[in-house]
# Entry
Amino acid sequence: MFVLCDSVSANGMGGSIIIDNAIDGKMYTIYNMLDLESFDGDNYSYKISSSEWVEFFDSGVGRFYFDVNSNGGVAFVGNEQSMDLVAQRALAYAKSHESITKKVNGQLEVLLSLKI
# Structure
């Protein structure tokens, strides 16, 4: 899973997301930008999760931080300092495309059916 937040982490291969210090009943919004296609050790292969994100990565501001190869594989080409900016720009894009938004009630562990 590609995570742009330090208070959220993926939980192994089980398809769950853990939100640290979640507040019970608070609404959290999750955006699935990339799908993990495969991994081997520290090598990961991602693809764009849905057609609604293609514009962000191909012609939107995401193109400055991600490289999409001819097979659809996505690689982050920014640096650690640009992660906050990437997150802000991805959030602005997601808010303007409501169909890609998933809202969940706050729990210590939020279970989603993710392809990881």
